[in-house]
Amino acid sequence: MTNPTHPARELTITSAANPRLKALLGLRRRRTRDETGHTLVEGYEEIDLALGVGVRPRTVFVCEELFSPAGRAGSQDIGHQDDLLARLRAERVEVVHLSRGAFEKVSYREGPDGLLAVVDRVGVALADLPAPGPSHLTLLSQGVEKPGNLGAMLRTADAAGVDAVVAADPVTDWGNPNVVRASKGTVFAVPAASATTAEVLDWLRAHEISLVVTTPETDLLHTDVDLTGRVAIAVGSEKHGADRVLLEAATHRVRIPMAGAANSLNVAASAAIVLYEAVRQRGVR
Fold first, then answer.
1. Do 194 and 166 meet the contact criterion of CB atoms below 8 Å apart?
2. Which keywords does this chain's UniProt record carry (predicted)?
């Protein structure tokens, strides 16, 4: 039995051809993530947030040569990788040391900070997604393709106090490393689920949640709808917006006023605008 008063032996990998690193690269593919039930989280902030909401990594890969020196960068404290590594060791998480070349091969971001973790699958089944309370607020995205947009919506949902985020007919999965990265780790903090549009509509009806869909095909402004009750705010895909099925199921169709030449906003920006109108209304009430 391992003596808990002494640190566990930590593996060091210097070869970029090591099989464990090939397995890490495999987790960039959705099929591998689905088969293994694992995904990747890279970076101090993302791993720190995941730890803070109870996620325990299976393994953390580190390259201390890439750690930032302790100090300040603008308004932010930096150089806390050593502190995070100590927390991971205290929780008996496996630590694997990589050479700089090996780490840079498996890193999926520019300017890596020397921390990469393998964690369990992100997201819950729609049937297991709770929807309690008279002011439950869900963000619904339909067919959104770009991981960066999904991640940005998760950050907004976390900041706005959204109760759940649901992806209908998703093109990507919540465990996509670029979703995790763009969300700054908030994918672990906000309950998130995926399902077909039909399943999502059944879930909304079963939980008596009103559906507000953003679309340019209406004269009703998003500020003219009551968003204080049990509401789901929905945005559609980047190319086509919400489909006819979602629009026909809507309690309200709303648009965001636009004064320029373009007839639509970035989908993550649209979600943020309507979500914060809900926040404003709920604060006023």
1. yes
2. Methyltransferase, Transferase
